[in-house]
Amino acid sequence: MRADTPGRSRPALALALTTTLLVTAFAPADAPADRAADRAGGGAAPRPVAAYDFEHPVPGDPARERDRGRSGTTLELVNGGAQSRVRDDERPGRVLRTRQVSPGTAGSDDWKAGVYGPQGVPTLGAFNGARETTVMGWFRMTADNPAPNSNTADPNDRYNAIGLAGILSGTSQGHDVRALLELITVNGEMKVVALGRRVDNGSSQTFAADADWREILPPDTWVSLAATFDFDTGTMALYRDGRPLPGRHVVAGDPWAVEGAPEPDVASPTDPRGIKIGGSYPQNTQEGNPCDCRMDDLMFFDRALTPAEIMSQYRRTRG
Ligand SMILES: [Ca+2]
Prior knowledge:
Layout: H1 10-25, H2 32-39, E1 50-52, E2 57-58, E3 61-65, E4 75-78, E5 85-87, E6 94-98, E7 112-116, E8 132-141, E9 161-168, E10 177-186, E11 189-196, E12 205-209, H3 213-216, E13 222-230, E14 235-240, E15 243-244, E16 247-249, E17 274-277, E18 293-301, H4 307-317
Antiparallel strand pairs: 1-18, 2-3, 3-4, 4-7, 5-6, 6-18, 7-17, 8-13, 8-18, 9-10, 9-17, 10-11, 11-12, 12-16, 13-14, 14-15
Pfam family, one: Laminin_G_3
Signal peptide: 1-29
Keywords: Signal
């Protein structure tokens, strides 16, 4: 919920809230997962908690995007607003444009997307105590990433990470995550990774793809990426265009503290503070790890999809 809107009367606000609830309650029958189930010949295709196709602006408020998943978590198109919903020469409809603005200035104008709630976002409650999670979407690198670090004086200093999409932890300042798909420097080398944190304020684990990141995400090429997180076994996996990406867990030991009782191990019993897409700090207080990218069909599931389900989602969304 955003801050008070000047001039908006209480009845009008109540009506707006009611409309939102109605939209949430009566999810459309053509929701993505339902179509997937139809195409797969029935069966229980997983329905995402949150899903964004960037074809569904909030009526009257096009700087926000409706959730096509089951949670009704409305996304903010931060700084870019409706302008960041753009047409693409390779994918139908519209996609999300994210990018750095003013590389030399420590400001708050980068185009990104997300949602942030300082007390947690209740609609993301499916990830409260979740045993598993999947983050999935389509990504196209459109310029020279990583971007110059606008938070330091050195013009040659670049960010050590490129933000794609993820779910914030329950105590996040807008950067720390529970489950994230991104690129980050691992032992001096940029890598495509899944990065997860089971316990709020605890240590993170990183699963890094072996292949060179420029082979996984060539310039100006649409790629489907997925990351799965199993908080009970302490393991993650990555997929590119529906197929598993060979890789390895980077942190030795037990950073998620899954050894020993109690079982099973689940994520912290807190609602995530939000979602971040194309950079950190969705509340727009700071810049961090921007992505000069296009993105589409971003999905967040509260379980680890199987390899067959990942392939099915890839085929369904490849446009
Ligand atoms: Ca789209």
